[in-house]
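Hello K.,

You asked for the raw outputs rather than the summary table, so here they are, unedited. I folded two proteins back to back in the same session to keep the settings identical. This is the first:
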Amino acid sequence: MDYHLETRKPVLGQAGTLAVGTEGGVRGSAWFLLQISPNSRLSQEVVLDVGCPYVRFHTEVHWHEAHKFLKVEFPARVRSPQATYEIQFGHLQRPTHYNTSWDWARFEVWAHRWMDLSEHGFGLALLNDCKYGASVRGNVLSLSLLRAPKAPDATADMGRHEFTYALMPHKGSLQDAGVIRAAYSLNFPLLVLPTPGPAPSTSWSAFSVSSPAVVLETVKKAETSPQRHTLVLRLYEAHGSHVDCWLHTSLPVQEAVLCDLLERRDPAGYLPLRDARLKLTFSPFQVRSLLLVLQPPSTYTP
C-alpha cells in the first residue's frame, strides 16, 4: 500500500567498501558494498563502457528480510507532468503528480524494459533487465527491486539475486535518442561464439529493417504451416508513429504473406519480394506477423 512510502529510510554505505573494479581503457568500473541489515547485504559494480550511452549498475543482493521493500531512486533535473513507461509492443504515459485518487492508486505502475522522464530537449531513462515495478513522482525515478511479504508465500524473494539496471541521459526525445534500442541491448547483449574455419570476409545478417521505429521482435519456426521450411516473423512499431519500412533478408524466400497471431494466412496479405526486400506499413504500435516460406535447401547454395 502507499503508506509504505512514509516509513522509508535510505540504506547508507560503510566506510572502506568503495574500490576501483576496472581502471580505464574501454571499460571503467567502481565497486561498493551496502549492509542492508544484519541479515542482508548488497554489492554493486557501476560500469561505464566506451561508446555505451548508459551507465550500468550490476547488482548482487543476499536478501533475508521481513515486510521490507527495496527500491532504488534517481533524482533528475527534469520537469515534466508525464513519464513514459514501456509495455509490451509499445509504451504509455502516466502523470508524475498525485492530484486525484486515481493518481494515488498508481503510486507504482508496471513497466517493462525502460521508463523515461523527459522535458523539451533532454531526458533521463532508467533501463532494467528483469524488474517491473516503477514510478516517477515529481522528478524522482524509482525502480522496485525486492520485496519481503509473508503471505501467501513466506519465502517470497528470499535468497540470492543478481540483476542489472542502467541510467541513460539523452538529448531530444526518447525515440530520437534510441532509448528503446538501448533497452534491448541491455536485455539481449551480443554473444561472441567461436566458429570453425576461416573468418568470413563480409558481414552477414539474416534480417534487418530500414526504420528505427520498427522492431523485429520474434523470429521462429512456424507452428501450423504444412511446409517444413517456414518462418514466422513478428514486428511492431515502437515509436507511436505511422511509418513505411523495408524488411531486408539474406535468406532465400520463396513466398511471403501476412498472418495473424495464430499463424493463419491472410488471403489478401501476400507481399511481393523486391530485391530481397519486403515493404511494410505500420500505424502507431501496430503488430504485424509474417509467414516466410523458404526455398528447400537442395535448390540453393547459401
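The second followed immediately with the same parameters:
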Amino acid sequence: MASDLETKAKEAFIDDHFELALHLYSQSIQLNPKHAELYADRAQANIKLDNLPEAVADANKAIELDPSMSKAYLRKATACMKLEEYQTAKSALETGAALAPAESRFSKLIKECEERIAEETGDLSMQTPEALAKNDVPAKEIELDKDQPNLEIEAAPPKPVYRYEFYQKPEEVVVTIFAKGTPHDCVKVDYGEQILSVAINAPGKEAYHFQPRLFAKIIPEKCRYDVLSTKVEIRLAKAEPIHWTSLEFSREVAITQRVNVSSVSASQRPSYPSSKPQRVDWDKIEAQVKKEEKDEKLDGDAALNKFFRDIYKDADEDTRRAMQKSFVESNGTVLSTNWKEVGAKKVEGSPPDGMEMKKWEY
C-alpha cells in the first residue's frame, strides 16, 4: 500500500499536482515513517508550494534517517536559500557536494550563497567581479533632482488582525498570539532551524500568516504550542542559552551575551521585554496561566480532541502505533489503542449510523 501511494505521489508531482503529491507523500510517510526517500520527496513538493519551513523540516528528517542522501542536502539548501538563510544553505551544500562530487548544482549554489553572504556582511572580497559590476550604479543614475519636491507619501499600515508578544527564559522563548475563540484545527504551527511559521485561518476572519526569521536558532523537535480560548501559546526551545534582544533576526542587532544557566540561582529573575516601568514577576504570571489552562473547560469537539491528544501524548509506543494504524486504515472512523487487536489485520471503516463509506479515488 505504501509503495502504491509513493508511485501515485511521484506521478502527481510530475503532472504539477503538487498539493495532491504532498497529500499522498504524507499518507505514505504515515505508513512508512522510517523511509528517508519519502521525506526528501515531500520536501521538494513543499518547496514547489512555498511551504519552506516544512521543506527544511522534511529535509532534516531525511538526513537524520539517511545521512548519505545527497539530494536531501540539496532540498534543504534550496529551501534555506529561499528563506535567505545562506550560511545554513552553504553548510548543507558543502556536505552534499562531498557526497556527490559529480553533481554540478552544488558548486553553482555554493558560489551563489557566498555572494549573498558577502552582500549581507559587506565583504567585497567574497563577491565575484560580475556581482560587483551589477552593484556598481553610476552616480548620475541615482542623483536626485533638487528642484523637484518629494511627493512620495507612505500609506498607513493596515491594522493587524492578531497581535503577538513574547518573553523568554534562559532555555526557551514563549510567543503569545492573541486569537480569541480560534478553533484548534484552524491553527498550524511549524518550526525550522531559525524559522517560525504560524498560519491561522479562522472562519469569518482574514487569514493570518506570521513567518519570522528568528533572532537565533531553535531546536524544532523540542518546540510545542497550545491553542487556548483566548490565545495561541508557542514555546520555542533555544539551541543556545543566549539572551534574545528581539524575536526577529536583524543585521543591526548587537552581539549577544551568553547566559550561564548554572550560575542563575532561584532568586534571580531573567529580564523580559516590557513596556511597564515596574518589575514584573513573570514566574508568577506563568504559573497563573498554567492554572487557567488546567482549569479551562472545553465542550463538544474541542473536549473530545483534547481527550484524544492527552491519550496519545502519555501513551506508549504500541498504543500510539495502534491509534495511527486504526485511524489511517479506517479513514478516520475508528480509533483503537489496542495494538494486539489491530496490529495483525487491516482495520475496516465503521461509519456512523445512517452513513456509508465511500472509497476516495485519486
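Confidence is low (pLDDT under 50) at residues 136-153, 254-269.

Happy to rerun anything if the numbers look odd on your end.

Regards,
P.
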